[in-house]
Write a structure and sequence with these properties.
The chain is of the alpha/beta class. It folds into two domains: about 5-195, Rossmann fold; about 205-245, no CATH class. It contains eleven helices and eight strands. Helix 9 links the parallel strand 7 and strand 8. The longest helix has about 30 residues, at about 195-225. The chain is globular, with a radius of gyration of 19 Å.
Length: about 250
C-alpha cells in the first residue's frame, strides 16, 4: 500500500488526538515503519478560522515538515488528499460539503466521518443534493466511499474503543487503512448500521464514567504545580501498567 495523504476537515480535541497518534506511528524512527513505508506520510489540516490554524501550527510545530495547516480552504485540502477525515462540527457539514468544487475534489476518494449524528447517506446528500435520475447515474460513478466511525474521549490516552460502521462499499485495502488509523488511538470494533449508534453510546458512556474523575485528577495536579500534559502522561503510564498487570 503506497503512502497516502490524509486531510482533516476540522481538527478539535478529537481530531488532534487522532493526528497525534498517527504522527507518532509514522515517525521515521518508529520500528513499525523501518521495514515498510508508512500508510500515511503527509497530513493536511483545514480549520474554519485563522486563530485555530495558528493554534494547531504551534501544537504540531515539531512535525511541520509533515503537517500542513490551512484555514478556510476546504476544497484545496480535499483536492490534495487521498483520504479525508470529516472532523468538523456536524452543524457545519452542509455548509462545507456544498462548497463549489467539493463534488469534484471528493470524486472516488475515501471519506471517513467522525461527526456525531450524521449517517453516510446524510453526508452524501450534502455533497450531492437531490437531482434527476440521469444526473444521479453520472454522479454515482464519481461518488466517494463514505464510512463513519465513532472514537471516544479516551483517544487522548490512546485507549479509545472506536466503533466503525460496516459498509459493503469498503474495499479490503481501505478497511485495512481505516482499522490501522484508529488502532493508533486504541482498539477498533466494526458493527452493522443498525447497531452503530447503540455501540457508540455504550462505548462513550463507559468512558465517561472514567474520564470525569480523570479530569478532576488532572485539575488537582495543576493546582499542585504539575503541568496538565505531564499529569496526563503519568496517568496514562499508570493505566498502561495496570492493564498489563490485570
Amino acid at each position: 500500500m503506497a503512502s497516502k495523504t490524509l486531510a482533516f476537515i476540522g481538527c478539535g480535541n478529537m481530531g488532534s488526538a487522532i493526528l497525534s497518534g498517527l504522527l507518532d506511528a509514522t515517525r521515521a524512527d518508529n520500528s513499525a515503519t523501518a521495514s515498510s513505508p508508512p500508510k500515511l506520510s503527509h497530513f493536511i489540516i483545514n480549520t474554519k478560522t485563522a486563530t485555530s490554524a495558528d493554534r494547531l501550527r504551534t501544537q504540531f510545530q515539531s512535525d511541520a515538515s509533515r503537517v500542513e495547516v490551512l484555514h478556510a480552504q476546504n476544497v484545496r485540502a480535499m483536492q490534495t488528499a487521498d483520504v479525508i477525515l470529516l472532523a468538523c462540527k456536524p452543524f457545519l457539514a452542509a455548509e462545507i460539503l456544498r462548497e463549489p468544487g467539493v463534488q469534484d475534489a471528493l470524486a472516488g476518494k475515501f471519506v471517513i466521518s467522525i461527526m456525531a449524528g450524521m449517517t453516510p447517506d446524510e453526508i452524501a446528500e450534502c455533497i450531492f443534493p437531490s437531482s434527476s435520475s440521469s444526473e444521479d447515474q453520472q454522479q454515482q460513478q464519481g461518488r466517494p466511499v463514505i464510512v463513519r466511525a465513532m472514537p471516544n474521549v479516551a483517544a487522548r490516552l490512546r485507549k479509545s474503543l472506536t466503533i466503525v460502521e460496516e459498509s459493503a462499499s469498503l474495499s479490503a485495502e481501505r478497511a485495512e487503512l481505516l482499522t490501522w488509523m484508529f488502532e493508533q488511538i486504541g482498539a477498533v470494533k466494526y458493527l452493522g448500521p443498525e447497531l452503530f449508534d447503540a455501540g457508540g453510546m455504550v462505548a462513550g458512556a463507559s468512558m465517561a464514567m472514567f474520564t470525569m474523575p480523570l479530569d478532576g485528577l488532572l485539575d488537582g495536579s495543576v493546582v499542585l504545580g504539575i503541568r496538565r500534559s505531564e499529569a496526563l502522561e503519568m496517568v496514562t503510564q499508570v493505566l498502561a501498567d495496570e492493564n498489563i498487570n490485570t
